[in-house]
Every structure is written in C-alpha cells, then in structure tokens.
Design goal:
This protein has 169 residues and is mainly α. The chain folds into 3 domains: 1-34, no CATH class; 41-116, no CATH class; 118-169. The chain has helices spanning 21-31, 42-52, 57-65, 68-78, 92-99, 101-116, 122-149, 154-163; strands spanning 4-8, 11-14.
Length: 169
C-alpha cells in the first residue's frame, strides 16, 4: 500500500515518488504556477461530437479541412499500402469516405494526441516516446483481439488501447 505525504494543500506525492527528480521539478513548477497543461485540440472534440451526432460527410470534411495537417495525414493514411487502393485518394472527402467515420475519428484523435504531447527536454521526450510506442503496441493488440473475438468493436478497442495510459503523460 502506498502512503502519500501532503506536499502542498492541493498536491500529494506518494512516498515512492517523493525523491524522484522529475516529480520534484514538476512539483516546483506546480507551486510557482508554471505548470501548463495543454488542452485537447478543438478539432478532435468537434469531430468526436459531429460523429456522435451522425452529421453529414460534408460537415466532417469542413471540420477536418480547418486543420490542413490533419487533413493531409488522413489522405496519407488512406493512401498507405494497408488500404491497397487502385487509385490514390487526393481529397479529404474521399479519404473520410474510404476510412469510415469511426476510423477517421480515431485517427484525428491520434494525430491530435501526438501533437499535444511534446517536450524539448530529452528525458521527457524519451518518456513520451516510450509511452507512445507502448500505446501503439497495446492498440494494435487490442484491435487484433477484438477482430478475432468479435465481442467488442475493433475500432473502439484500438482507440481504448491507444488511450489506455494517457494519464501517465
């Protein structure tokens, strides 16, 4: 059982992390009001909401085209060997149509998350990269298992695997 020591009225650090330099630096940033937590990108939230409301393809395209980088990445993914297309797709509408709504949502969230968690410090960068690779492995395994077992939606399993350890970041 892990005990916690109150370091500040609003922040508690478990005993086994108390002497960790990273945790101490994080705590100092917290105390001095220098801790900035990025908010989840607006486009990912809009896409998720639009898909939940079963909006039209044209509306999805408008939302995604607000972020040219994400739009380009979707087109890049759909043109990858995984989809084995006869002719390359060159626009966002066709990419979304080919990928499907759920996959499009999952990819937009993935791209947004990847952009969200960046750092200039080598130690933090390495930790983020390790966590990211672990998330990709877990999401791949989750997707494959869901496809085999057919009891869980494979796209939801993929997204759950991708997000399973987001709290560590």
């Amino acid at each position: 059982m892990t005990t916690t020591t109150s370091v500040d009225k609003e922040l508690k650090i478990s005993e086994n992390l108390k002497n960790n330099p990273f945790v101490e630096q994080l705590h100092q940033h917290f105390i001095h009001g220098q801790l900035e937590t990025p908010s989840f990108p607006d486009i990912a939230l809009k896409i998720r909401r639009a898909i939940q409301q079963d909006c039209e393809l044209a509306d999805l395209v408008k939302i995604i085209n607000m972020d040219p980088v994400i739009s380009a990445k979707l087109i890049q993914v759909v043109n990858s060997p995984f989809y084995m297309l006869m002719q390359p797709i060159t626009n966002c509408a066709n990419a979304i149509n080919r990928l499907g709504r759920k996959t499009t949502r999952d990819l937009v969230i993935t791209f947004s998350m990847k952009n969200l968690i960046k750092s200039e410090k080598p130690v933090i960068k390495k930790l983020i990269q390790q966590t990211w690779f672990q998330s990709i492995k877990v999401s791949s395994i989750s997707y494959t298992l869901a496809k085999q077992l057919k009891k869980v939606d494979s796209d939801e399993a993929l997204l759950a695997g991708l997000l399973h350890n987001i709290g560590t970041l």
